[in-house]
């Protein structure tokens, strides 16, 4: 038999092994990695449908990632065999509520630099298509295999938002802690995102998350409450008198729902109902528990809303993705938070006003009626002008007395008085009122001591008094026109 060349055989075997290894590397890099990297495949939903086929939602919102006022946003998507995996966590299938979205915020893969004012958030469209997968709910575990409190809270929020979406309740995020995190710079959130990669914003460590809902969208549909009960939620409904029906002639006797508190696994979801008032603003009532209600249902002292009634401008909302959940938020978060800090609403005391007017009837002459109409229009103009400048104010002097004493404007006062803290003074106030159609009539004092501005509109004077803080007291100054003497 011929002698076998062992060296040649060894070289052939080595060559074939290397060729096979190179083929495996080529196949993995060009096919398998594309699938794992999130390439679109048959069966993956279109990006403009965020809830899959059969969704109750009839809008096609853009996906928006928001990480703060610097607006550094990022998208991170990992789709593997039709399953989404949050970074740093494990999961298993749990037949629960369908996942609304599969977008996970990470730091930072794409950096967007839109041009707009701080505090406002615009829709940001990612540079690559985002796919969405209809799947069962995620059950997130930490590396040790245990469910953490933040993961339970995330599941609770996800379940509630899915119910609200199914019943077409456009709740929006009103939680001050979460909104504050969203309004901060994204760079300051890097450490927090590393610690809680799946729930960086919504899981704040507080047992309560607050949402708001415009009351005209709330219909007493027992189906929503029944579905919430079937999902395991416990409900506490707080009702109160409807102030929209109150007047000097009659007092409101009808009760309306004001607050809903949903409890699951020790976490509370607080829904505040916002009612539209005649002044084109939104109002919510105070949360008062009746004697037969469970006083331990929730940590009521931690609630953002309910200690007093509140009034808000109607916020412009946008749909965004926060911690992989589709949530509506105010477009201008900073403005909403600023309003929330000073939104306390005081209802006019109709009972006391009616008693006063029985002793001192109001002037009902044509001249008095016309003056009150012009005064209200001037006050409304002042509110709009100062609102555009983000300057808070209050009614003062005779105008305040008329509201407090008789729920109206004193007809013989012949002017409108408002107050502003001197710390909120801006040099362009006079120009803003001139642009609104008012003329500057007087300017007394200086910014340092006793500033006072007077504007004229429709034969009615608008007096703006500036108030100064001195320790525990607050005062406003006055200047005598002829002598120039100053008074406190």
TrEMBL record:
Residues 1-40, 135-376 form the Ribitol-5-phosphate transferase FKTN N-terminal domain. The keyword Transport does not apply. GO terms for cellular component: Golgi membrane. Signal peptide: none annotated. It is a single-pass membrane protein. Its main location: membrane. InterPro entries: FKTN/MNN4/W02B3.4-1 (IPR009644), FKTN_N (IPR045587). It comes from the Eukaryota. Keywords: Membrane, Transmembrane, Transmembrane helix. It is found in: Membrane. This is Ribitol-5-phosphate transferase FKTN N-terminal domain-containing protein. It comes from Crenichthys baileyi. The lineage of its organism: Eukaryota, Metazoa, Chordata, Craniata, Vertebrata.
